[in-house]
Design a protein that fits this description.
CATH class of the largest domain: Mainly Beta
Number of strands: 12
Number of helices: 7
Distance between the termini: 45 Å
CATH superfamily of the largest domain: Immunoglobulins
CATH topology of the largest domain: Immunoglobulin-like
Order of helices and strands: EHHHEHHHEEEEEEHEEEE
């Protein structure tokens, strides 16, 4: 009987997509297999024994948002570890020292229409720190982030930790700002946990945010 770890293919595909977006990884010779191995050692395996099981597992895994965010988190963690090991380039002394000690939790959330709980495409979600868009850990993370049908209305951010601005507080305050031409703007205050380097794989899941349609707006566009 053939046994396959379903996660091998899924992780390999995620790593491939990340590496395509970051051309600098080729310059410092970050090895794809090193990243895949690193991630597989940090997520639970899913062993499959049939073709039907493989198909069902891939569909299930595709829609498990928490699992995908944890996996993506581990991919970036692996890249960070390998970069530090192979590259002698440093950022500022402050940011390097802070990165050695602390990071912020990855943020994931969902925004829906308040009366039908329908997914709303094209909501611009901005993560604010002290009233300004928060800096992300690298260019692969967008701020603001625009929701879409492919991600089922979910948004995610991974803000960078700044020791100078954030100190050593256990939690850092942020504000989520939601904007859409057919809905009332909304702001939600959140606090993100500061985590130490040996314990980096954490995700902060925000409460579902419900948006109110502006007066006179026809919501039929949500079902097209």
């Amino acid at each position: 009987m053939s046994i396959q770890n379903l996660m091998e293919d899924i992780v390999a595909n995620v790593v491939e997509e990340v590496m395509k977006k970051d051309k600098d990884l080729e310059k410092i010779k970050v090895n794809r297999d090193d990243i895949v191995a690193y991630v597989l050692n940090r997520i639970p395996p899913k062993y499959i024994t049939s073709e039907r099981g493989i198909l069902h597992g891939k569909i299930q895994a595709h829609y498990e948002t928490q699992q995908k965010t944890d996996m993506l988190f581990s991919v970036y963690e692996a890249i960070d570890v390998i970069k530090k090991r192979r590259s002698t380039e440093l950022h500022s002394a402050e940011s390097t020292a802070a990165a050695e000690e602390y990071r912020l939790s990855h943020i994931v959330g969902e925004v829906l229409e308040e009366t039908t709980l329908s997914m709303i495409p094209n909501v611009e979600v901005t993560l604010l720190f002290k009233g300004k868009p928060a800096k992300m850990i690298d260019d692969n993370w967008k701020n603001p982030y625009t929701t879409n049908k492919a991600t089922k209305g979910y948004y995610h951010f991974w803000p960078i930790f700044s020791k100078g601005d954030m100190g050593k507080s256990a939690h850092v305050p942020f504000t989520l700002e939601f904007s859409h031409p057919k809905f009332e703007d909304k702001k939600v205050d959140i606090e993100i946990e500061t985590i130490s380097k040996p314990n980096m794989a954490k995700t902060h899941t925000t409460a579902i945010v419900l948006l109110q349609a502006k007066v006179g707006v026809d919501l039929d566009f949500l079902y097209k």
